[in-house]
Amino acid sequence: MKFHYLLAAVILLTAACSEKADRTLDVVPYPNEVRLRSGNFDIAGATFHLDENLPEYAVSAVADFARQLSKVTGKESAIVSGSSRTGVVLIVDPSLKNEEYHLDTSLKAIVLKASGLNGFLYGLTTLRQMLPVEFFSNEPSQEVEWVVPCSKIIDSPRFSYRGMHLDVARHFFSVNEVKKYLDVMAMHKLNRFHWHLTDDQGWRIEIKKYPELTAFGSIRKETIIGHLYSEQGYDGTPYGEGLWYTQDQIREVVSYAASLGITIVPEIDLPGHMVAALACYPELGCTGGPYSVWTRWGVADDVLCPGKEATFDFIFGVLDEILELFPSEYIHIGGDECPKVRWEKCPDCQARIAELGLSGNDKHAVEFFLQSYVTERVGEYLAAKGRKIIGWDEILEGKLAPNATVMSWRGIEGGVEAARLGHDAIMTPYSHLYFDFYQSENKDAEPLAIGGYSPVEKVYSYEPYVEGMTKEETSHIIGVQANLWTEYITTDSHLEYMLLPRLAALSEVQWCKAEKKDWNRFLESLPVVCQRYGMMGYNYATHCLGQSSVSPEAE
Predict the structure, then answer these.
(1) Which residue in 102, 171, 194, 273 is the catalytic one?
(2) pLDDT tens across 311-322, in order?
(3) What count of other Cβ atoms lies within 10 Å of the Cβ of residue 445?
(4) Residue 273 among the catalytic residues
């Protein structure tokens, strides 16, 4: 008789958790393998059981999760060591890939398995999004049904490099806002933060060997009003005093990012986009100056002089301190938009060209090969210290430095060429992945932007692999990134507005296998995603929600 009761119970339990194919989850990026079942797990007050080998940051992430769950449900969730057949159980499984996770939800338990920190973080991120949106609120919501749908999820990312960029040189953003930026990146399972720290219009990171870089190079005397190509004069107001990060602040942000599974890739743009540095150390330029921190946007003719050995002493001195602050394997050295007009007339540069025996070809003048020399020399310096360089696709012009990774921004061609040369590439084409572009064709209703038009659906449509590439070539497309330049973005609210919800679309391009992307499914989930943004205190555009977007400038 007991056997029959037990058999009946098993049948009922199996039926309650049988697989269902007619539902989807409001999870972004969507998991690559989802099997939904009937029934739910009641998570309010659930105990969290932790494998003793769980990474330290994962333990902290579970504590944060349990603390938030206790607050919103009104029922305390304890954390204990060891395994269990009930509650929320986290198990270290070395057989899983680095960022892979398995999340199995039944009526009695949620079991999360991963091999390392990022896998556990992503599993917890998916679990958060499977809960009611009130989980992201700061207020208790005891009337909400705190359940997680029964399901089995097996998930890992399509690309190993999943990046988001932020320019803080043109306009500065506080440590708190950068952390908020990292938080929403983590919510979408990105793992690289490209931090553009220096440019013609301001130097934003403390370098102790060269204190003038922040004392003077951080400040421009004024900023143009309106768009670069329809400027209405200048505002007459100095910008940038005190707007730079101390090395302690950098360490704080690097540590915070690491706790979210995010590696920060710093960018020190060279040899172009260096007017802020030249204003402090004019002897590093071809003409000797004087130079002023640039007050315009665009591309300056004045760049570092590679004919002078002092220039490399400066570069290496800056990079030595960058390496101490950032553990990233990759260091971004820019390499973009470097005019050669000063080099063409500079005796020191021409002497260096002669010394090296450089010559041009039918595609590029000899000065392009001088820039290749700069890139290669910096690459060798970093390689000797165990690091690798990333540069914008201009580093392909002339001769590509050994082991350089190319960030393809002017289109897809740079990434394709790099891959065909056997170099890794990260796809960041401005056509789809520049988030400083307008989100609506009704530009009058939008805040001022640099130009272009890149709505959420265009971001979502991007496919990183290019038809005709071989399997070997596609293996060199290691990731995807979107870029957010801030010439026309001055406030936190405006920054978030340009980022969200385009970041959600980007995350599916980066994470989901091509055949798993589904615009209609994504679009149906977007209102819930945006509700989460609202509860987390972010400003976001509402173009895809059938609402008229409100410009942050109109708030």
Answers:
(1) 273
(2) 999 999 999 999
(3) 13
(4) yes
